[in-house]
Amino acid sequence: HSKSVSARNTAGRVIVHIDLDCFYAQVEMVRNPELRGKPLGVQQKYIVVTCNYEARKLGVKKLMSVKDAKEKCPQLILVNGEDLTPYREMSYKVTELLEEFCPLVERLGFDENFVDITEIVEKRLNQLQQSGCSRVCVSGHVYNNQDINLHDTTHIRLVIGSQIAEEFRQAMRARLGLTGCAGVASNKLLSKLVSGIFKPNQQTVLLPESCQDLIRNLDHIQKVPGIGYKTTKRLETLGVRSVCDLQAFPSAVLEKELGVSIAQRIQKLSYGEDDSPVTPSGPPQSFSDEDSFKKCSSEVEVKEKIEELLPSLLDRVYKDGRQPHTVRLTIRQFSSTDKWFNRESRQCPIPPHLIQKFGKESSVISPLVDILMKLFRKMININLPFHLTLLSVCFSNLKDVPSSKKGSIGFYLKQTPQTSGSGK
DNA sequence: TGGGGTTAT
DNA sequence: ATAACCC
Fold it and tell me: Where is this region: Disordered (predicted)?
């Protein structure tokens, strides 16, 4: 049957999108169950970045200012969520749980995952057929309340997908105490769109006959994942406002306006077509830590901010086990107009002698500060006045440590060519 | 509007 | 190094 799987390959996949409910707020409620049942918001600086459903019932919205939120809802409990450590840890527990079922798990942010369950579905379908059982029951909602045709193998496979999605959600609830939504469909785009149809803690499966209905019911093109702010603006100047507009727009004109690659991709998206694979995320490609503030305008302050960011960041890198080979400094300069676009960065290789010391936390910090201050001076002339509102440090280009250099013993012992590097 | 992430050019 | 996208 593996031949039939590869023959279908992208044609008949079963993809599930998992989307946790108000993730940061849920994590806080798991950490402190006394918060359950009360209106709760998670605060970063003067923004309520997310809140639980009790708070939403009382009018609190995501990304609302703390001032507005307190006015709407004086009983609102706020917890500070500027340190992402608990959320990041829980996020990876979710991904790892899903990876127990199947290796094809792709993360999107901290609170979403795609899982390609085509092979699991195929196995269960074969078991079902061999046991002569023709009864299959959908789990959760069917988009549009569409009738299931039990003679249609595509329907059957998606129904089996809905059962697997249900098992994912039950496992997340039982083992991590988390609730979330799931969407089941034939590609990533559609699974993501359909997961949001019934909203907290429910799931929905999309059958192919309702695909056009789902995508065309999006009230704006920016709701299509993959079509962001910039592309939306450019499409607007072309008179393209709705998904239907984009479907009907002449391909040749679109290609000249946006380039062939983007044009073809987003026009396919407008039809609900998405052949991008579920790419296993694996370990992170980068580790960064940032802080925003009202004002930072002297070199000394910059150095202090960097020294604040580094220890926890280095700790994360150390716990990962791999060694970063690139370091980057990012800044945001104050500007009253155009508030949201002005970031610049400089990056450089980390000197090899420093890379090797990356386990020895404190010895690495002051040379790194020196490197980061040099990067800073490449962006900012410190003889002129400046006004920063954000600093960020990022380690990337992570490489596995060669096994011959692992552990303090192996480093000092001469390796003989025969021993394959265990260091003993 | 925070504090993160990714890939493409 | 930036620009676009995602949460």
Answer: 272-291
| Fold topology of A218-271 | DNA polymerase; domain 1 (1.10.150)
pLDDT band, very low/low/confident/very high, at A133 (cuts 50, 70, 90): confident
pLDDT at A339: 61
User: What does CATH list as the number for A23-81?
Assistant: 3.40.1170.60
Q: Is the CB of A340 under 7 A from strand B?
A: yes
The confidence score (pLDDT) of residue A199 equals: 95
Residue positions counted in chain A: 424
pLDDT at residue A129, as a whole number: 92
Q: Which nucleotides of C are covered by protein (CB under 7 A)?
A: 1-7
**Identified catalytic residue from A28, A54, A106, A112:** A112
- Where on the phi/psi map is residue A98: left (φ > 0), alpha (ψ -120 to 50), or beta? alpha
Strand C atom within 7 Å of A103 CB: no
Q: In this predicted model, what pLDDT tens digit does every residue of A35-90 receive, in sequence order?
A: 999 999 999 999 999 999 999 999 999 999 999 999 999 999 999 999 999 999 99
A347 touches strand C (CB under 7 A): yes
pLDDT for position A338: 65
Which is it for strands A203-205 and A141-142: parallel, antiparallel or unpaired?
parallel
Strand B proximal residues, A:46-105, Cβ < 7 Å? 46-47, 49, 63, 82, 84, 88
- What is the reported pTM? 0.93
A190-240 per-position pLDDT tens digit: 999 999 999 999 999 999 999 999 999 999 999 999 999 999 999 999 999
Output the DSSP codes for A47-65.
Answer: EEEEE-HHHHHTT--TTEE
Q: Domain spanning A15-20+86-209: which superfamily?
A: Reverse transcriptase/Diguanylate cyclase domain (3.30.70.270)
Q: Does the structure show a pLDDT above 90 at A187?
A: yes
A344-355 burial string, b = 16+ CB within 10 Å, else e?
eebeeebeeebe
Pick the closest to residue A389 from A340, A350, A356, A355 (CA basis): A340
Fold of A286-400: Dna Ligase; domain 1 (3.30.1490)
| B5 closest protein residue (CA to C1') | A109
Cα dihedral sign for A69, A75, A81, A87?
negative
Check whether residue A409 has its CB closer than 7 Å to nucleic acid strand B.
Answer: no
Per the structure, the residues numbered 274 to 333 in protein chain A that have their CB within 7 angstroms of any atom of strand C are: 328
